[in-house]
């Protein structure tokens, strides 16, 4: 069965440092997509970055990058040079190529301290 | 930039009453989704649609109906609202044209008293 797990409920780091958020997934499909979304304090949910399962290179988007470890079914989100406005809840999600539904993790709350 | 608009933003309903949550997208996406979000949970899929006239059950469809009368509009209907349906509801759209990324509305906070 498909499943996405984020074990870190909350992380707190100092501003301008690098943070990594963990996510592991379960799927039987050989082809799938992995996503990270951010939910701000206002409730807005925005797409951050995506990794396709067939791509070996890690995706990057601005100060977001991914650590894709396919043998471990792991897709970590790395935020470099964190800013106060990066404080939010971060969700990991997976979509199998054979299914239009996204499977969501429970989220990790990131707190950036000045 | 793609846009998804939900209405109303806030709603207070009485138990047993009918509630309709509306969603409009100007992205021309085929797929639309209704999620609910509760404290301690991620997003849970209620209903989704592949296009006008289609609706599919998600993971938690009980107590909800959906309607997709056009490409742009997707409604979530609570025929007999219950307090357990108090939640924040999000609509989203997306498809292969958007490279699978979803665009979300700002959410509707529903309180059923």
Structure report:
The complex is a heterodimer of chains A (114) and B (113). Chain A is built from no helices and 12 strands. Chain A has strands at residues 3-5, 10-14, 19-21, 24-26, 32-39, 45-52, 60-61, 64-69, 74-79, 88-96, 102-104, 108-113. The model of chain A has no long low-confidence stretch (mean pLDDT 94). With 113 residues, chain B is mainly β. Helices cover 0% and strands 47% of the residues of chain B. In chain B, strands 2, 4, 5, 6, 9, 10 and 11 form a 7-stranded mixed sheet that branches. In chain B, strands 1-3-8-7 form a 4-stranded antiparallel sheet, with no helix packed on it. In chain B, β4 and β5 form a beta hairpin.
Task: Pick out its properties.
heterodimer; A: about 110 residues; mainly beta; six-stranded mixed sheet; four-stranded antiparallel sheet; about 55% strand; B: about 110 residues; seven-stranded mixed sheet; 11 strands
Low-confidence stretches of chain A: none
Secondary structure: helix percent of chain A? under 10%
β-strand amount of chain A: over 45%
**What is the tally of beta strands of chain A?**
12
Cα shape of chain B: globular
Topology, number of strands of chain B: 11
The biggest sheet of chain B amounts to: 7 strands, mixed
The rounded distance between the terminal residues' Cα atoms of chain B is 37 Å
Q: How would you spell out the order of helices and strands of chain A?
A: EEEEEEEEEEEE
Query: Biggest β-sheet of chain A: count, sense, barrel?
Result: 6 strands, mixed
> Which quaternary structure do these chains form?
heterodimer
Greatest interface (CB-CB under 8 A), with counts per chain = A-B, 19 and 22 residues
Count of separate DSSP helical elements of chain B = 0
Mean pLDDT of chain A equals: 94
Q: Summarize the amount of helix of chain B as a percent range.
A: under 10%
Task: Return the string of H and E elements of chain B.
Answer: EEEEEEEEEEE
